[in-house]
Specification:
The chain is of the alpha+beta class and 101 residues long. It has four helices and four strands, in the order H-E-H-E-H-E-E-H. Bound molecules: glutathione (GSH).
Length: 101
């Protein structure tokens, strides 16, 4: 039998799994990034972020991997493969699906 606490921690585990392999490239005053941050918060996810304005290495990573320095961009690592997802609406759709599945 599950207690309220058990189901709570199960939910936390599911959220931690949903955030696995994800990194958000962003900068602070970008409105599209802010929209994605709100969605991340709303979904209860905890996703590491790299600020391409304060971290030149992160900007280089984004350019080398994704091909553009446009933000927001979500780096998705699954089964040894890396995908770079641009477009705030597409990122939010992707995150919603990850949480639902
Ligand atoms: N349609 C994009 C727009 C993103 C966008 O315009 N980002 C700006 C910052 S607010 C940017 O990175 N501009 C620089 C560039 O396009 O390389 C989205 O919704 O994510």
């Amino acid at each position: 039998m599950h207690s309220v606490t058990d189901s709570g921690s199960g939910h936390q585990d599911a959220l931690a799994r949903a955030g696995e392999g994800l990194t958000l490239y962003h900068f602070r005053i970008c409105p599209f990034c802010i929209k994605v941050h709100w969605a991340i918060r709303q979904l209860g996810l905890d996703i590491p972020c790299k600020n391409i304005r304060s971290d030149p290495g992160a900007r280089e990573e984004l350019l080398a991997g994704g091909g553009r320095t446009m933000v927001p961009c979500l780096r998705i690592e699954t089964d040894g493969e890396t995908r770079w997802l641009y477009e705030s609406d597409d990122i939010i759709d992707f995150l919603r699906q990850r949480v639902v599945v």
